[in-house]
Amino acid sequence: VLASEKRMFDNGANTIKHEGIVFGCVHREDNPDFALHKVPGLVGLGRGPLSLVKQIGSSIDDKFDYCLPPCRNENNSVGQLKFSNDADLSGTEEVQETPMASDGGEGSFYVLILTNISVGNSRLNIQFAGAQTTALLGDARSINHRLG
């Protein structure tokens, strides 16, 4: 089900109103990942026209930063999502940036250029084909990723 309505976003200094924000509702979830069953909602951050980033892009200078907590999250830290000029999480020594492919990928996805693969603390030192771009296409909702 898709709907459209006015949404308000508070940026700390003032409230920004957006008319006609399109959002979806799920009535039945067939996802076998039980960890997602306790999630109150999902937000689309892709490059497609219905993503939140595209819908409010002009008011956030088309910028956002999404920081995941470390895999071994011993400090119970949480991820962060920031928009606009606040979208800079590089001041923390634990933050590692991963640039996106310059061509922007295909469709609604973001694409990362793959330079190496590690399993645990061991680098595999795989030699990727020089002329062929090896990319990683990821989906934050899924444990499945595609090498292309």
UniProtKB/TrEMBL annotation:
GO molecular function: peptidase activity
UniProt KW keywords: Hydrolase, Protease
Gene Ontology, cellular component aspect: extracellular region
Biological processes annotated in GO: proteolysis
Top-level taxon: Eukaryota
InterPro entries cross-referenced by the UniProt entry: Peptidase_aspartic_dom_sf, Plant_Aspart_Prot_A1, TAXi_N
Signal peptide interval: none
Similarity field: Belongs to the peptidase A1 family.
Protein name: Xylanase inhibitor N-terminal domain-containing protein
Pfam families listed in its UniProt record: TAXi_N
Organism this protein belongs to: Nymphaea colorata
